[in-house]
Amino acid sequence: MSKITILFCLCSTLMLSQNITGTLYDAEAPLSGAKIMNVTSKSITSTDGNGNFKIYAQINDTLIFSSLFHHTKQLVVTEMHLVDNQVFELKKNVNELDEVEVQGAITPKEMDEEKLTNTLQQQFKNDIEKHGYKYKKLNTGPLDLIAIGESIIKLFKRKSPKEPETVETTITSDDFDALFKTDKFFNDKFLVLNLNITKDYKHLFFAYCESKEISSSLLRPENRIYLIDKFLEYSEEFREILKESQNQ
Question: What are the φ/ψ torsions at residue 73 (nearest 5 degrees)?
Answer without folding.
Answer: -120, 135
